[in-house]
Amino acid sequence: MSRAEVISKERGRQFDYSEAVYNSAWTLYWWYENYQLYSEKYLIYEDIAKSSCEVEYLKNLATLWVNLLLISHKEVCNIDIEKHTKIVVEEHKKYIFDISKPNASIEARAGYQMIRMILQEDVNDIVEEYIDILNNSDGKLNLKVTTIEKIVTNTPLLKEAKKYDQLFEILLDTMGKRSTDIKKAKILRNRTNKVMEKPHDALVLNSRALTLLLKLETKSELLQSLISTGVIWDRLAVSGLQKIFCSMRFV
Questions:
Q1: Given 85, 186, 194, 250, which is the most exposed site by the fewest CB atoms within 10 A?
Q2: Within a 10 A sphere around the Cβ of 129, how many other Cβ atoms?
Q3: Residue 163 and residue 170: Cα distance in Å, rounded?
Q4: Do 177 and 135 form a contact (C-beta atoms < 8 A)?
Protein backbone atom coordinates (compact mmCIF):
# COMPACT_ATOMS: atom_id res chain seq x y z
CA MET A 1 0.00 0.00 0.00
CA SER A 2 1.41 3.40 -1.01
CA ARG A 3 1.89 6.19 1.51
CA ALA A 4 -0.94 8.15 -0.10
CA GLU A 5 -3.26 5.18 0.32
CA VAL A 6 -2.33 4.74 3.98
CA ILE A 7 -2.82 8.41 4.87
CA SER A 8 -6.06 8.83 2.88
CA LYS A 9 -7.53 5.65 4.33
CA GLU A 10 -6.72 6.68 7.90
CA ARG A 11 -7.47 10.40 7.73
CA GLY A 12 -9.23 11.22 4.49
CA ARG A 13 -12.61 10.69 2.92
CA GLN A 14 -13.55 7.64 0.89
CA PHE A 15 -13.11 9.68 -2.28
CA ASP A 16 -9.55 10.60 -1.25
CA TYR A 17 -8.74 6.96 -0.65
CA SER A 18 -10.27 5.91 -3.97
CA GLU A 19 -8.15 8.49 -5.81
CA ALA A 20 -5.02 7.17 -4.09
CA VAL A 21 -5.91 3.60 -5.10
CA TYR A 22 -6.62 4.71 -8.68
CA ASN A 23 -3.31 6.56 -9.00
CA SER A 24 -1.45 3.62 -7.50
CA ALA A 25 -3.08 1.21 -9.96
CA TRP A 26 -2.30 3.54 -12.86
CA THR A 27 1.37 3.69 -11.84
CA LEU A 28 1.59 -0.09 -11.49
CA TYR A 29 0.15 -0.60 -14.97
CA TRP A 30 2.04 2.01 -16.97
CA TRP A 31 5.35 2.29 -15.12
CA TYR A 32 6.01 -1.09 -13.54
CA GLU A 33 3.84 -3.46 -15.60
CA ASN A 34 3.01 -5.26 -12.37
CA TYR A 35 -0.25 -6.76 -13.56
CA GLN A 36 -0.84 -8.96 -10.53
CA LEU A 37 -0.68 -6.05 -8.10
CA TYR A 38 -2.68 -3.93 -10.53
CA SER A 39 -5.45 -6.54 -10.43
CA GLU A 40 -5.47 -6.33 -6.63
CA LYS A 41 -5.82 -2.55 -6.75
CA TYR A 42 -8.61 -2.93 -9.29
CA LEU A 43 -10.57 -5.12 -6.89
CA ILE A 44 -10.22 -2.51 -4.15
CA TYR A 45 -11.44 0.28 -6.40
CA GLU A 46 -14.26 -1.87 -7.74
CA ASP A 47 -15.50 -2.53 -4.19
CA ILE A 48 -15.40 1.19 -3.42
CA ALA A 49 -17.40 2.02 -6.54
CA LYS A 50 -19.97 -0.71 -5.82
CA SER A 51 -20.54 0.48 -2.26
CA SER A 52 -20.86 4.13 -3.29
CA CYS A 53 -23.93 6.04 -4.36
CA GLU A 54 -21.91 8.64 -6.27
CA VAL A 55 -21.61 8.54 -10.08
CA GLU A 56 -18.17 10.21 -9.92
CA TYR A 57 -16.51 6.82 -9.36
CA LEU A 58 -17.67 5.42 -12.70
CA LYS A 59 -15.14 7.23 -14.90
CA ASN A 60 -12.11 5.83 -13.07
CA LEU A 61 -13.71 2.40 -12.76
CA ALA A 62 -14.26 2.27 -16.53
CA THR A 63 -10.68 3.40 -17.19
CA LEU A 64 -9.26 0.74 -14.88
CA TRP A 65 -11.55 -1.87 -16.44
CA VAL A 66 -10.15 -1.17 -19.92
CA ASN A 67 -6.65 -1.93 -18.62
CA LEU A 68 -7.91 -5.04 -16.84
CA LEU A 69 -9.47 -6.21 -20.10
CA LEU A 70 -6.10 -5.91 -21.83
CA ILE A 71 -4.35 -7.72 -18.99
CA SER A 72 -6.86 -10.57 -19.13
CA HIS A 73 -5.54 -11.55 -22.56
CA LYS A 74 -2.07 -12.23 -21.15
CA GLU A 75 -1.27 -15.81 -20.20
CA VAL A 76 0.41 -14.82 -16.93
CA CYS A 77 -2.84 -13.48 -15.49
CA ASN A 78 -5.81 -15.37 -14.15
CA ILE A 79 -8.65 -12.84 -14.26
CA ASP A 80 -12.36 -13.55 -14.51
CA ILE A 81 -12.90 -10.69 -16.94
CA GLU A 82 -16.50 -11.66 -17.65
CA LYS A 83 -17.33 -11.21 -13.97
CA HIS A 84 -15.74 -7.76 -13.79
CA THR A 85 -17.24 -6.70 -17.11
CA LYS A 86 -20.67 -7.59 -15.78
CA ILE A 87 -20.01 -5.51 -12.67
CA VAL A 88 -18.86 -2.41 -14.56
CA VAL A 89 -21.92 -2.67 -16.83
CA GLU A 90 -24.28 -3.10 -13.87
CA GLU A 91 -22.73 -0.15 -12.05
CA HIS A 92 -23.39 2.10 -15.02
CA LYS A 93 -26.94 0.84 -15.41
CA LYS A 94 -27.55 1.43 -11.69
CA TYR A 95 -27.29 5.16 -12.36
CA ILE A 96 -28.67 5.17 -15.90
CA PHE A 97 -32.04 3.81 -14.80
CA ASP A 98 -32.30 5.93 -11.64
CA ILE A 99 -34.72 8.60 -12.90
CA SER A 100 -34.60 10.37 -9.53
CA LYS A 101 -31.08 11.56 -10.40
CA PRO A 102 -31.23 12.94 -13.96
CA ASN A 103 -27.75 14.50 -13.83
CA ALA A 104 -26.11 11.27 -12.67
CA SER A 105 -28.18 9.28 -15.16
CA ILE A 106 -27.08 11.23 -18.24
CA GLU A 107 -23.45 11.26 -17.08
CA ALA A 108 -23.54 7.47 -16.67
CA ARG A 109 -25.16 7.08 -20.09
CA ALA A 110 -22.43 9.14 -21.71
CA GLY A 111 -19.66 7.13 -20.07
CA TYR A 112 -21.34 3.82 -20.82
CA GLN A 113 -21.21 4.35 -24.58
CA MET A 114 -17.42 3.92 -24.63
CA ILE A 115 -17.80 0.60 -22.80
CA ARG A 116 -20.37 -0.47 -25.37
CA MET A 117 -17.95 0.33 -28.17
CA ILE A 118 -15.24 -1.76 -26.55
CA LEU A 119 -17.74 -4.62 -26.19
CA GLN A 120 -18.49 -4.23 -29.92
CA GLU A 121 -22.18 -3.48 -29.57
CA ASP A 122 -24.28 -2.02 -32.39
CA VAL A 123 -22.61 1.22 -33.46
CA ASN A 124 -25.86 2.59 -34.88
CA ASP A 125 -27.56 2.24 -31.52
CA ILE A 126 -24.59 3.88 -29.79
CA VAL A 127 -24.81 6.89 -32.12
CA GLU A 128 -28.55 7.09 -31.44
CA GLU A 129 -27.74 7.22 -27.73
CA TYR A 130 -25.21 10.01 -28.20
CA ILE A 131 -27.79 11.98 -30.19
CA ASP A 132 -30.35 11.62 -27.41
CA ILE A 133 -27.77 12.52 -24.74
CA LEU A 134 -26.77 15.71 -26.55
CA ASN A 135 -30.39 16.66 -27.20
CA ASN A 136 -31.02 16.42 -23.45
CA SER A 137 -27.73 17.93 -22.28
CA ASP A 138 -28.99 21.41 -21.47
CA GLY A 139 -28.87 22.12 -17.74
CA LYS A 140 -27.03 18.89 -16.89
CA LEU A 141 -24.25 20.03 -14.57
CA ASN A 142 -22.18 16.82 -14.51
CA LEU A 143 -22.15 16.18 -18.26
CA LYS A 144 -18.86 17.13 -19.92
CA VAL A 145 -19.75 17.70 -23.56
CA THR A 146 -16.09 18.31 -24.48
CA THR A 147 -15.37 14.65 -23.66
CA ILE A 148 -18.18 13.53 -25.97
CA GLU A 149 -16.78 15.84 -28.64
CA LYS A 150 -13.37 14.13 -28.46
CA ILE A 151 -14.95 10.68 -28.70
CA VAL A 152 -17.31 11.55 -31.55
CA THR A 153 -14.65 13.27 -33.66
CA ASN A 154 -11.77 10.86 -32.97
CA THR A 155 -13.40 7.40 -33.03
CA PRO A 156 -13.41 5.93 -36.56
CA LEU A 157 -15.94 3.27 -35.56
CA LEU A 158 -18.66 5.84 -34.97
CA LYS A 159 -18.24 7.28 -38.46
CA GLU A 160 -19.56 4.02 -39.89
CA ALA A 161 -22.98 4.61 -38.31
CA LYS A 162 -25.91 5.66 -40.48
CA LYS A 163 -26.66 8.76 -38.40
CA TYR A 164 -23.10 9.89 -37.74
CA ASP A 165 -23.53 13.04 -39.85
CA GLN A 166 -26.65 13.93 -37.86
CA LEU A 167 -24.73 13.33 -34.59
CA PHE A 168 -21.91 15.55 -35.81
CA GLU A 169 -24.26 18.43 -36.63
CA ILE A 170 -26.06 18.13 -33.27
CA LEU A 171 -22.68 18.12 -31.55
CA LEU A 172 -21.71 21.33 -33.38
CA ASP A 173 -24.99 22.99 -32.37
CA THR A 174 -24.62 21.87 -28.76
CA MET A 175 -21.01 23.05 -28.47
CA GLY A 176 -21.93 26.34 -30.08
CA LYS A 177 -24.88 26.92 -27.75
CA ARG A 178 -22.82 26.09 -24.66
CA SER A 179 -20.06 28.43 -25.77
CA THR A 180 -22.60 31.19 -26.37
CA ASP A 181 -24.28 30.54 -23.00
CA ILE A 182 -20.94 30.81 -21.21
CA LYS A 183 -20.15 34.12 -22.92
CA LYS A 184 -23.62 35.48 -22.08
CA ALA A 185 -23.26 34.37 -18.46
CA LYS A 186 -19.87 36.10 -18.10
CA ILE A 187 -21.36 39.34 -19.48
CA LEU A 188 -24.27 39.06 -17.03
CA ARG A 189 -21.85 38.38 -14.17
CA ASN A 190 -19.82 41.47 -15.04
CA ARG A 191 -23.00 43.56 -15.16
CA THR A 192 -24.09 42.09 -11.83
CA ASN A 193 -20.85 43.18 -10.17
CA LYS A 194 -21.35 46.72 -11.46
CA VAL A 195 -24.89 47.11 -10.09
CA MET A 196 -24.43 45.54 -6.66
CA GLU A 197 -25.53 48.83 -5.10
CA LYS A 198 -28.95 48.06 -6.62
CA PRO A 199 -29.64 44.60 -5.11
CA HIS A 200 -32.93 44.04 -6.94
CA ASP A 201 -31.36 44.61 -10.36
CA ALA A 202 -28.29 42.59 -9.40
CA LEU A 203 -30.47 39.68 -8.30
CA VAL A 204 -32.29 39.57 -11.64
CA LEU A 205 -29.06 39.68 -13.64
CA ASN A 206 -27.33 37.09 -11.47
CA SER A 207 -30.31 34.74 -11.66
CA ARG A 208 -30.14 34.87 -15.45
CA ALA A 209 -26.43 34.04 -15.30
CA LEU A 210 -27.08 31.08 -13.00
CA THR A 211 -29.42 29.41 -15.49
CA LEU A 212 -26.69 29.60 -18.14
CA LEU A 213 -23.92 28.24 -15.91
CA LEU A 214 -25.35 24.79 -15.17
CA LYS A 215 -22.48 23.06 -16.98
CA LEU A 216 -19.47 21.09 -15.82
CA GLU A 217 -17.15 23.38 -17.78
CA THR A 218 -18.30 26.41 -15.75
CA LYS A 219 -18.33 25.10 -12.19
CA SER A 220 -15.99 27.83 -10.93
CA GLU A 221 -18.14 30.58 -12.49
CA LEU A 222 -21.25 28.90 -11.10
CA LEU A 223 -19.74 28.94 -7.61
CA GLN A 224 -18.91 32.64 -7.94
CA SER A 225 -22.44 33.35 -9.09
CA LEU A 226 -23.90 31.45 -6.12
CA ILE A 227 -21.67 33.44 -3.76
CA SER A 228 -22.91 36.65 -5.37
CA THR A 229 -26.48 35.47 -4.80
CA GLY A 230 -25.72 35.13 -1.09
CA VAL A 231 -24.21 38.61 -0.97
CA ILE A 232 -27.20 40.10 -2.78
CA TRP A 233 -29.69 38.42 -0.46
CA ASP A 234 -27.71 39.72 2.49
CA ARG A 235 -28.18 43.25 1.12
CA LEU A 236 -31.87 42.54 0.71
CA ALA A 237 -32.16 41.22 4.26
CA VAL A 238 -34.51 43.94 5.47
CA SER A 239 -36.26 44.65 2.18
CA GLY A 240 -39.90 43.99 1.52
CA LEU A 241 -38.98 41.89 -1.52
CA GLN A 242 -37.32 39.23 0.58
CA LYS A 243 -40.19 39.17 3.06
CA ILE A 244 -42.64 38.60 0.20
CA PHE A 245 -40.42 35.92 -1.33
CA CYS A 246 -40.05 34.05 1.95
CA SER A 247 -43.75 34.16 2.71
CA MET A 248 -44.58 32.79 -0.73
CA ARG A 249 -41.86 30.13 -0.48
CA PHE A 250 -42.87 28.62 2.83
CA VAL A 251 -46.63 29.09 3.01
A1: 250
A2: 16
A3: 11
A4: no
